[in-house]
Design a protein that fits this description.
The protein is an alpha+beta fold. It has 4 helices and 10 strands; from the N terminus they run ααββββββββαββα. The protein has helices at residues 6-13, 17-42, 143-157, 176-185, and strands at residues 49-58, 61-65, 68-71, 78-86, 89-90, 103-106, 111-114, 126-132, 161-164, 167-170. Strands 5-4-8-1-2-3-7-6 form an 8-stranded mixed beta sheet, with no helix packed on it. It is elongated.
Length: 191
């Protein structure tokens, strides 16, 4: 589901309604392509992606340090776990401080903590299903990232015009703040 619409882009550019009608499909297609390109550039999923039975072991999709399984790559943005099994045994999540669960997901550091023990070092020992992406708790992309995507689509469309000293010109590049924002979202595994 695209969280950015051509209406968002046209509103940002201040586009007249006749141009919106004429170029609506073009901008809609640019949105999908831009999201894919930005995801490839930053190494992260902008919109939610469901994963099913993905395998993890130290060095494959994660780094394991005793009781912490640090997620790598796009898996760093795992925000929901629907099932987690280790060595074929399904583990239960911790739901509160009095719970006897076996793991919990720390979204802030992109790691899964194993309670009462360490993660198995066995090949493909951990299997996870869940949802990942750069979305907030309501399922929407971060506002600043959404605005950056809108700006990128506006530039790519060739329809975004502005004025400088009374002269109209077509905006040909994204702004420096948008470039810096995208750089801040680029995945850098530090472990």
């Amino acid at each position: 589901m695209a969280q950015i619409t051509n209406a968002d882009v046209f509103e940002f550019m201040g586009t007249a309604s006749d141009i919106q009608t004429q170029h609506g499909t073009l901008v809609t297609n640019l949105i999908a392509r831009t999201i894919t390109e930005v995801e490839q550039t930053i190494g992260r999923k902008i919109e939610d992606e469901t994963i099913t039975d993905e395998l993890f072991e130290d060095g494959r999709n994660c780094i394991i340090l005793d009781d912490l399984l640090f997620l790598k790559g796009k898996y760093r943005d795992l925000h929901t776990i629907t099932s987690l099994a280790e060595d074929g045994t399904v583990l239960t999540p911790v739901s509160d401080s009095n719970d006897s669960g076996e793991y919990y997901l720390n979204i802030g550091i992109g790691a899964i903590k194993r309670v009462y023990g360490n993660w198995s070092p066995v090949h493909n020992a951990v299997k996870i299903s869940g949802t990942l992406g750069l979305t907030d708790s309501t399922g929407f992309t971060n506002f600043a990232l959404k605005q950056a995507l809108i700006e990128i689509v506006a530039v790519k469309s060739g329809l975004w015009t502005s004025y400088y000293k009374g002269e109209e010109f077509t905006v040909k590049d994204i702004t420096d703040p948008t470039k810096r924002l995208l750089e801040s979202y680029t995945l850098k595994d530090t472990i």
